[in-house]
């Protein structure tokens, strides 16, 4: 009889964030989920070699803001885990350390374990509500969905080696936060799929609790940026529209 597959679970944690480390240890041990910690890149404390991929001018032109040190550290941390996924040739469930778990989390992990090779990327949380199309109904009231627009956030998602290769290949130059890169399914070809109802909730909703939160500190994009970028936005909207054609008539809120 074949042994059931166990999805490798990795928690992204800054070494200085000892309270979060203790909190995640307590939560995951209570759920009896095997896991390990990954020492996150601290963008506020070090300049990692991966930061050489960051193009400040392109960020201002394409994203409208410079990336903050914490955002670069976050990008580098997830990028390194994508590379690890490729090197180890096995899917990974990536959890950030500022999350909480719903009662359906273990059922969701079982579903992700079964389906991750088919879908490539499965998000277990979202920072923004998005319309979605149901791809599969599963047990315990869970469903696999495809988002019409990327839901933002990297708090909790599983990734397969084939999807990780696509994300790495499309991230030769960094000019936007890692979750925005993750959302651009029309660019890298990794579908924006997820598990609903979401089994994970993101807790860090303010600058006080988040390493990368910008909020009001960042302000609004300039009128000049909006004028200069309108053709880029039109092209990306068209690309997203074309990628969404197979799901027309199926979107729901």
Keywords:
253 residues; alpha/beta; Spore Coat Polysaccharide Biosynthesis Protein SpsA, Chain A; eight-stranded mixed β-sheet; two-stranded antiparallel ribbon; 8 helices; 17% strand; globular
What does this 3D model show about the protein?
The chain has about 250 residues and is α/β, with parallel strands linked by helices. It has one domain: Spore Coat Polysaccharide Biosynthesis Protein SpsA, Chain A (Alpha-Beta Complex), CATH 3.90.550. About 40% of the residues lie in helices and about 15% in strands. It contains eight helices and ten strands. The strands form two sheets. The chain has an eight-stranded mixed beta sheet, sandwiched between helices. It has a two-stranded antiparallel sheet with strand order 4-10. Helix 3 crosses helix 5. It starts with 7 loop residues before the first strand and ends in a 9-residue tail after the last helix. The relative contact order is 0.17.
Give the secondary structure arrangement, pairings included.
Elements: E1 8-13, H1 18-30, E2 36-39, H2 56-63, H3 69-88, E3 92-96, E4 99-101, H4 105-119, E5 121-123, E6 132-137, E7 143-147, E8 156-159, H5 161-169, H6 178-183, H7 185-188, E9 193-196, E10 200-202, H8 223-244
Parallel strand pairs: 1-2, 1-3, 5-9
Antiparallel strand pairs: 3-8, 4-10, 5-8, 6-7, 7-9
């Amino acid at each position: 009889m074949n042994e059931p597959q166990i999805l490798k679970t990795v928690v992204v944690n800054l070494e200085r964030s000892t309270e979060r480390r203790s909190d995640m240890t307590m939560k995951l041990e209570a759920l009896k989920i095997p896991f390990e910690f990954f020492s996150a890149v601290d963008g506020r404390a070090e300049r990692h070699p991966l930061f050489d991929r960051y193009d400040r001018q392109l960020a201002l032109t394409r994203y409208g803001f410079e990336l903050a040190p914490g955002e670069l550290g976050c990008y580098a941390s997830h990028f390194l885990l994508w590379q690890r996924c490729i090197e180890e040739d096995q899917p990974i469930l990536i959890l950030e350390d500022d999350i909480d778990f719903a009662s359906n989390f273990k059922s969701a992990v079982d579903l992700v374990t079964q389906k991750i090779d088919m879908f490539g990327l499965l998000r277990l949380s979202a920072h923004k509500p998005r319309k979605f199309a149901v791809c599969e109904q599963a047990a315990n009231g869970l469903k696999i969905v495809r988002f019409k627009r990327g839901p933002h956030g990297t708090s909790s998602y599983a990734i397969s080696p084939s999807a990780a290769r696509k994300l790495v290949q499309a991230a030769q130059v960094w000019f936007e936060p890692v979750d925005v890169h993750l959302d651009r399914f029309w660019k890298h070809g990794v579908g924006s799929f997820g598990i609903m109802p979401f089994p994970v909730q993101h807790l860090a909703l303010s600058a006080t609790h988040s390493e990368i939160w910008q909020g009001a500190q960042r302000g609004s994009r300039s009128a000049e940026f909006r004028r200069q970028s309108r053709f880029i936005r039109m092209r990306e909207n068209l690309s997203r529209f074309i990628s969404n054609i197979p799901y027309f008539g199926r979107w729901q809120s």
